[in-house]
Specification:
Elements (H helix, E strand, L loop, with lengths): L14 E6 L5 E7 L6 E6 L9 H11 L4 E4 L17 H14 L4 E7 L1 H12 L6 E5 L11 H11 L1 H9 L15 H4 L8 E6 L7 H10 L5 E5 L11 H17 L29
Parallel strand pairs: 3-4, 3-5, 5-6, 6-7, 7-8
Antiparallel strand pairs: 1-2, 2-4
Length: 287
C-alpha cells in the first residue's frame, strides 16, 4: 500500500487504504495506527471535505494520537469514486470503513462523524450492515432541508441550482442527481441506535445548525444519548481542537467497552408515533 508523509503529533505514518462499498463505489482513504489496538475510530468527514483537507487531516492526526483511525473519502469527494448523494448512500461508505477496521483486527470500532458525516454516522448506526460499538456525532443536523442559517442557505444553493452544482464541482464535490426518495432524517432514526452508546457534540456558536438540532436529537434518542455543548463558533472538524479530540477518544474507548453484549436494552424513542412534520422545527422543509 502507498504511504504518505509522517504526522508528527501522532508519530505514525498514514497509509493509503482502498475498499469498495456494497454498491461497488471505489473508496480511498487512510489508516493511522494509533497507540490503542483495542478500539479503532472510523471517521466520516463533512461535506466538501476529504481525508487530505487541512481541517480534516488535523482532526485525524489529533484523534490518532490516542487511538487508531480509519477514514475513507466519501463518494464524490477526494480520491473516492462515485458521486455524492449528500447523506443517503454514504451510509454504505461508512459501512465499508467499519468493515475494514474489523477485518484489520480491531475488536471494537467507534464511528465518529462531522457535520454531514455526523448525519451519516447516525443513520449508519441505526440501519447499517456493519454496526459500530459506539457513535460520536459532531455538529449533526437533526433534519434535512434546514435553511435557518445563511451558511445552510448557501449549501442548498449549491445543491439545488445549476450554477451551484457547478460551483460544488469547483469545491471538489461531484454531486449525484436530486433525491428521488427522501431518506430518513437523523431525528427519525436516532431512537433506533440504542443500545449502542451515542455522543452528540454541539458548539454553542455553530453558524450552520442551531442548538435546536442537538436538543431534538437528544430528545429523540429517548434520553439515551449524551450531549456535550462546547463553547465557540466552530462547526464539525473546524471546531474540534486537540483537547476535544482527546476527550472524544477517551469517551469512545470507554463507551465501546461498556456496550451491552446482548443488545437487550430498550430501543424506544420519545418521537415514535409522531409524523415527520411534527419532528421538524421552524425553517425546515421537506422536498
Amino acid at each position: 500500500m502507498e504511504a504518505e508523509d509522517t504526522t508528527g503529533a501522532a508519530q505514525v505514518t498514514p497509509t493509503v487504504i482502498r475498499a469498495s462499498s456494497m454498491d461497488w463505489v471505489p473508496l480511498a482513504g487512510v489508516h493511522l495506527p494509533g497507540p490503542d489496538a483495542d478500539t479503532a475510530l472510523a471517521v466520516c468527514h463533512g461535506f466538501t471535505h476529504h481525508t487530505r483537507h487541512p481541517s480534516t487531516r488535523r482532526v485525524l492526526t489529533a484523534l490518532a494520537a490516542h487511538a487508531p483511525v480509519v477514514a475513507f473519502d466519501m463518494r464524490g469527494h477526494g480520491r473516492s469514486g462515485g458521486r455524492s448523494t449528500v447523506g443517503d448512500r454514504e451510509v454504505l461508505d461508512l459501512d465499508a470503513a467499519v468493515a475494514w477496521a474489523r477485518a484489520a483486527g480491531y475488536p471494537r470500532v467507534v464511528t465518529v462523524g462531522f457535520s454531514l458525516g455526523a448525519a451519516v454516522a447516525l443513520r449508519q448506526a441505526a440501519a447499517g450492515t456493519a454496526r459500530p460499538d459506539a457513535v460520536v456525532a459532531v455538529s449533526p443536523p437533526a433534519r434535512w432541508y434546514s435553511r435557518e442559517t445563511v451558511p445552510m442557505r448557501r449549501v442548498h444553493w449549491l445543491l439545488e441550482q445549476p450554477h451551484g452544482r457547478l460551483a460544488a464541482r469547483l469545491l471538489g464535490v461531484r454531486l449525484a442527481g436530486p433525491w428521488t426518495t427522501v431518506p430518513p432524517s437523523p431525528v427519525e432514526v436516532v431512537g433506533d441506535i440504542a443500545p449502542t452508546p451515542l455522543l452528540l457534540v454541539h458548539f454553542t456558536g455553530d453558524p450552520y445548525f442551531s442548538s435546536g438540532h442537538a436538543w431534538a436529537l437528544a430528545a429523540a434518542s429517548g434520553g439515551r444519548a449524551q450531549l456535550w455543548t462546547e463553547p465557540g463558533t466552530g462547526h464539525g472538524e473546524s471546531g474540534t481542537d486537540a483537547a476535544l479530540a482527546e476527550r472524544i477518544t477517551r469517551w469512545a474507548r470507554d463507551a465501546a467497552g461498556a456496550r451491552p453484549a446482548d443488545g437487550s436494552a430498550d430501543r424506544g424513542s420519545t418521537v415514535r408515533g409522531h409524523i415527520p412534520a411534527e419532528r421538524r422545527g421552524a425553517g425546515s422543509e421537506v422536498g
